[in-house]
Amino acid sequence: MFLKELSDIPGVSGFEGKVREFIKEKIKDKVDYIETDKLGNLIALKKGKVNKKLMITAHMDEVGFIVSNIEEDGKISIIPLGTIDPRVVLGKKVVIGEKQILGVIGSKPVHLMEGYEKVSFENIKVDIGATKKQEAESKVKIGDFVSFAPNAMVHEEWISGKALDDRGGCSILMDLILSGLDLYYDTFFAFVIQEETGLRGSGSCAFKINPDFAIVVETTTSGDNPEFPPDRRSSELGKGPVITPAHRGYVNDERLFNFAVKVAKENNIPYQIKRRTVGGTDAARIAITTGTPSLVISIPSRYIHSPMSVVNISDYQNTLKLLSLILIKEVL
Amino acid sequence: MEVKEILKNLSNLDGPSGYEFPVIKYIKDVAEKIAPVKTLIDNHGNLIVRKKGDGRKIALFAHTDEIAFVITKKEFGNYFRIHTFGGVDPKVVISQRLRIHTKEGISYGIVGMLEPHLQNEEIRQKNITFDDLFIDVLDKSDSVQIGDLATFDSEAFDLNERYIAGKALDNRASCATLLYTLELLNQFIVNADIYFVFSVREEDGVSGAVNAAYKINPDLAIVLDVTHGDILRPSYPKIETGKGPVLDIGPMVNYEYFDKIKNLAEKLSVNYQIEPNGDHSHTDTDRIQITREGIPTLLISIPLRYMHTPYEVVNIRDMEETARLLSFFLARGGE
Amino acid sequence: MKELIKKLTEIKSPSGREENIRSAILEELKEYIDGYEIDKLGNLIVWKKGKKEGKILLDAHMDEIGVLATHIDEKGFIRIEPIGGVSPYNLLGSSIAFPNIEGFVGVEGETSEELSKNLKNLDFDKIFVDIGAKNKLEAEKLVPPGTFGVYSASFKDLGERIVSKAMDDRIGCAIIIEVFKKSNPYYTLYGTFSIQEEIGLVGASVVAFNIKPDLAIAVDVTAHSDTPKGPKRMSLELGKGPAIKIKDSASISDRRIVEKLKNIAERNNIPYQIEILLRGGTNAAALQRTGEGIPAGTLSIPTRYVHSPHEMVDIKDVENAVKILKLLVESEESLF
Question: Which annotated residues bind Zn(2+) 2 (chain A) (predicted)?
Answer without folding.
Answer: 165, 196, 305
